[in-house]
Each structure stands twice: as structure tokens, then as C-alpha cells.
Write a structure and sequence with these properties.
Distance between the termini: 66 Å
Order of helices and strands: HEEEHEEHEEHEEHHEHE
CATH topology: Alpha-Beta Plaits
Strand content: 15-25%
CATH class: Alpha Beta
Helix content: 10-25%
CATH architecture: 2-Layer Sandwich
Strand order of the largest sheet: 10-3-11
Largest sheet: 3 strands, mixed
Structural class: alpha+beta
Radius of gyration: 19 Å
Length: 256
């Protein structure tokens, strides 16, 4: 009689099976949850054209200049919604988008700032700490993701996120994009357009902001001292939201 598998071995086999099955076609993750196939189902491996493994050689980040962020402009939000297939799904009005514009007001002076707010891609991510299945995780290059194939929709990560950057998929999802898989009953958030990044591109929000000639957003490698984002941070500085939490966020802001 064969020895029974340990719980760890069973979980590993299950994840491996789901990953391989997802490549072949549409797979049922849980009752009511359908995800179309993607080249890399779990998101743990890079899809770079160069076939390089994701590593801590890079730390992808974003710098947002609030002084250049135009009040009333929704270019970054619209681009994000289009890129991730969030348009036309009748999302509940109370749901958070991957990226949203918020207004900060200094009570003593009345001074207001408009800024984009999204997942801050924390190095020490509270969402990953509380996830019971490992669905919420941070890649070696600093991008925080949700593995939809093992997300059970418990929403612990939503409660743990200090930036309210995650949302729950209530609606039925149809005609979704293969580069941005979604599923009813799972949690989702900004992925920093991981598929674009893995293929040498930049996030859709940054591209849209540049196209509008606002240039309020810079994307790049925080580990490269010669990258545009590192040079800008060295010259002008940049602040984290809630630095007291010591999360070492990948998104920084100027003008706060």
C-alpha cells in the first residue's frame, strides 16, 4: 500500500495541475469562477520576451508628481480600465477600481491635491501576510499580484490593505482579456500592468499620462541608479503614503 501524500505535497500537486490546465484553455476555479487561459497562469514566472526569470535584480516602481497631476483629468484611470477589461461590466458603484483619483485637502489651509491612488506594491505587503492560500504574493521584482486560481474570495487582503486598493469581483465576467484574467468571486487590484512590464513596456496609466503631456508619472527600476525614476527621486525626493507602516512601497509621491 502506497504511503499517503503529505498536505504540502498535495497542495503543490494541485497548484501544478491548475497551472498546467489553465494553459490549455478555460478552467473552472470554484463555483461561479471562470478564468480564461494565460501564458503564465500563476503569475509567478516572467513572460519576458528574453525568457529571463523574474528576480530581485529589478525593483519596479512608480513616481507620481502631484503638482503635475491635472485636477479633473481621468486619463490614467480610463487607460487602466481599458487595459484590464474593466469597461462595460457594470461594476458596482461602491467598488474600487485598480486606480482612482482622490483629492487630499489640508484642513488648516484649504490647499487641495489631486493624485492617483492604486496598489502601492509594498515590499512587506499586508495583503500577502494575511492571505490563507498564498494567492496574494509579491514577486521578486516587487510587483504585488493575486493568483486567481487559488484565491478563495475571503477578502482578508482587502481588510489588511491600508490603501483600500483592492476590490472584489461581484459581477459576471465575459470577454475578458487574456493578459488580465479576472474571475467572479476573486479579489483584484493594480498589477502594474505586469504583462506589459514583462515584455519591456510601461504601465498603461503612465503611457496615458505621458500622451496627455502631463508627465506626472514615471515608471522604472528603483534598483538601477541611472533609471529615470531613480534620478528623479535623488534630485527631488519622493514620499511613501503611510511611511509609519514601514512597508517600503514601490509607488512614491512628490509634492505631498
Amino acid at each position: 500500500m502506497k504511503d499517503s501524500k503529505t498536505t504540502e505535497e498535495m497542495n503543490h500537486s494541485r497548484r501544478e495541475f491548475l497551472s498546467k490546465t489553465a494553459v490549455a484553455g478555460t478552467i473552472t476555479i470554484a463555483p461561479g469562477v471562470l478564468l480564461h487561459s494565460t501564458a503564465q497562469a500563476s503569475g509567478n514566472t516572467s513572460t519576458k520576451a528574453s525568457d529571463e526569470e523574474v528576480s530581485n535584480k529589478n525593483r519596479w516602481g512608480m513616481l507620481i508628481d502631484t503638482a503635475k497631476c491635472a485636477d479633473g483629468c481621468t486619463g490614467c484611470v480610463d487607460a487602466c480600465n481599458e487595459e484590464n477589461g474593466l469597461v462595460g461590466h457594470d461594476r458596482p458603484a461602491t467598488d474600487t477600481q485598480y486606480i482612482r483619483k482622490v483629492t487630499l485637502k489640508e484642513k488648516s489651509t484649504g490647499h487641495e491635491l489631486s493624485l492617483p491612488l492604486m496598489c502601492q506594491h509594498c515590499e512587506t505587503a499586508p495583503c500577502a501576510d494575511v492571505c490563507p492560500t498564498g494567492a496574494s504574493f509579491v514577486r521578486a521584482d516587487g510587483i504585488a499580484l493575486v493568483d486567481k486560481h487559488i484565491c478563495i474570495g475571503c477578502r482578508y487582503c482587502m481588510m489588511a490593505c491600508p490603501y483600500k486598493a483592492r476590490s472584489f469581483v461581484h459581477e459576471n465576467v465575459e470577454n475578458q482579456k487574456l493578459t488580465a484574467p479576472r474571475g467572479k468571486g476573486t479579489v483584484e487590484a493594480c498589477t502594474m500592468c505586469v504583462t506589459r512590464v514583462d515584455n519591456g513596456g510601461i504601465p498603461a496609466c503612465v503611457e496615458a499620462c505621458t500622451a496627455e503631456d502631463h508627465n506626472a508619472m514615471i515608471f522604472g527600476d528603483l534598483n538601477n541608479p541611472n533609471s529615470d525614476i531613480s534620478v528623479a527621486l535623488k534630485e527631488h525626493g519622493g514620499k511613501q503614503l503611510r511611511p509609519d507602516l514601514k512597508l517600503n512601497t514601490g509607488v512614491r509621491y512628490q509634492g505631498l
